[in-house]
Amino acid sequence: MDKPLTFHAGTARQMVEAVAAGTPPMAVAEDMIARVQQVEPAVNAFAFFDADRLRAEADALPDGPLKGVTVAVKDVLLTRDMPTAHNSARYAGSQPGIDAACVDTLRSAGALIAGKARTTEFASTTVGPGTTNPHDAARTPGGSSSGSAASVAAGMTALALGTQTGGSTIRPASFCGVFGMKPTWNAISREGSKMYSATCDTVGLYARAASDLELLADVFGFDGCDVPDSLAGLRIGISYGTTPEAADADSRAAMENGAGVLLALGAEVFDLTLPEAFDGILESHRVVLAREGASAFLNEVRATPDLGAFFSDMVAAPPTAIEARAAYRQADLCRGLLDDLFEGGLDLILAPSATGVAPEGIGTGDPTYNSMWTLMQVPVVNVPMYRTAAGLPVGVSLIGRRYEDRRVIRAASLLMPEAVAPVG
């Protein structure tokens, strides 16, 4: 590159190119430190950030496809050299001394692990951790991956790791106006991640360019599949899931904009009607989470009696075995029916990423348009291609068949090839 990289204006791919051309990772680290000092006091994205630790890591990075790329890590993923507190008093300062598998993979690829991003307690509750939305400090950045999405949106890191059990990756991506991805369930190892739901927990990804998600797909070894060179001729179904009434005017405007761009690029766009078997699928998602959460948080409740009603109620009164079996049966049936739709000529689904713009206050928002797809275990990418008249982002989701993550990423890149500028 002809001039030094300006971190907060760059993408992960540009960082890789800069370091490969001779820019020392230390220069990237110093630029990030300066950016954090500038915007973090207002955004409050980090649960842990240590400039000296970052400098030491930048000075000893291994060679790899992500060398020098800055990554924030959600504070429910273990890190060997930083505390992992889960936003819980019980784990304040806890330092297990090992990395989660996904963090270990990124380090081996040369990534610069920037710090720990704030999360709701155990990535489960609906009360935000004090992070603000970079677009409007009075609004939530979403959750539970609050700090991860805000860090990328504010230009403090190029990439971030989140997690999703309901809508914890896609919804914050929509609210903060960045690309967010919930991969196929278990496409990225969850070893070293705080458990909530074995059926739904998924490691998520954030970036300001869809092409950066392709870098991460390579690093994490996503399955190979046919990827489109263009959107022309692809059959893309529009779906509001089982709750079309939940989308407000802003969410519908984002969907109409997305459908219009797809049509202009030559895609065949049509209204997709889901089979009747999907009726009640959101309740099945709730039952699965409540049943699996009861075992996941049993030890926390017993060891911490004042943990909170969200957890104690879940442990005290989980769904019955009959309810759980019915929910799992419906989930299995609907996954098969969704596979049938893709086998029958459906290429992708376009769906809302959120019911509207980020709401004001400390709540993390409504996961209505995320939970079903999480239970279906399919890959989802938020595309931040729409802004309201007030400048607030509203995303749309591209959804694909299980294990065709690369196809969804490429479609997102074709739908919106330009990178998102950092806020502030």
UniProtKB/TrEMBL annotation:
GO terms for molecular function: transferase activity. Residues 123-149 are annotated as: Disordered. InterPro entries: Amidase (IPR000120), Amidase_dom (IPR023631), AS_sf (IPR036928). It holds the Pfam family Amidase. Residues 123-134 have a biased composition (Polar residues). Residues 28-408 form the Amidase domain. Keywords: Transferase. This is Asp-tRNA(Asn)/Glu-tRNA(Gln) amidotransferase A subunit family amidase. It comes from Sagittula marina. The lineage of its organism: Bacteria, Pseudomonadati, Pseudomonadota, Alphaproteobacteria, Rhodobacterales.
